[in-house]
Amino acid sequence: MIPFAYQVFSTVIQEGTFQKAALKLNVTPSAVSHSITQLETELGFPVFIRSRSGAELTANGRTILPIIQEILNSQARLEQEAADINGLNAGSIRIGAFSSVCINWLPPIIQSFKKQYPHIDISVSQSSFNEIVQDVKNGTLDVGFVVTPVSENLLVDSLIKDEIYCVAPKGFVPKNKKSVTHEDLEDRDFILQSGDYDRDTKAALDYYGIQPNLIHFSIDDQSIVAMVEAGLGLGILPELALQKIPGNVAVYPFEHSFYRSIGLATSAVQAKAPSTQRMIEQIKAYVAKKYPEAVLVRA
């Protein structure tokens, strides 16, 4: 059996405080504190920095996180295999995704998956690209939607190429009537998410020679559209992010096409879990049906 302290350690990281971890585990805060103190005594070093605002991992705590998470994940896989043998189809799956995938893809994917496997628990975490990659690497997520390429040693299946568009206030029309060119972008301000900069959008900005002093950062896709609608600048958003965002704006392709590549990442260890395998199959089937032109390959 897995030591309870390992479960407490992982839950405190997920919840951020001892109090919230206690509620999640249905134990008292003192039981959580006692378990962590016992773990630290056994290891010989502190794993959390405690403060009024919560608990933060120490450097040593970050080092042991992937190891403890691997032990917990191995136990979960064992339970899933046993459930499969007994015909129960039980287990759990932890998915990490960025906002446009959460909005457009995950609802139908999860709905279809739950019809087939009603006893498999699903949790979804919305995070940035880099956070998703790190959580998959650490084992706190089973699968994660990422923007490729990924530098970490993970298993990554390519899903689609998502074209990047220029979002402009209503009434804006490119000079050539079809696509945005250098001439349309002179002395224009741009609004984008800070997490997107230095990734795919930077390629577009660099290509058109947009200076950093003309770039302003927003919180999310919806706020970018709202600011563009108010005439505060032009936005750069991928097609998937624009599918369900209302707004009185104009959307045009760039004269030179730019894309972000969306993939699905998992670790070699978690890829062996039955529930993870089933979810990956479900996601691939959904993407293949929605984007028949897509070629799904493992990067």
From TrEMBL:
Keyword Cell membrane listed: no
PROSITE patterns, alphabetized: HTH_LYSR
Highest taxon of source: Bacteria
Pfam families per UniProt: HTH_1, LysR_substrate
Entry keywords, A to Z: DNA-binding, Transcription, Transcription regulation
CDD domains for this protein: PBP2_LTTR_substrate
HTH lysR-type domain residues: 1-58
Gene3D superfamilies in alphabetical order: Periplasmic binding protein-like II, Winged helix-like DNA-binding domain superfamily/Winged helix DNA-binding domain
Family: Belongs to the LysR transcriptional regulatory family.
Record protein name field: LysR family transcriptional regulator
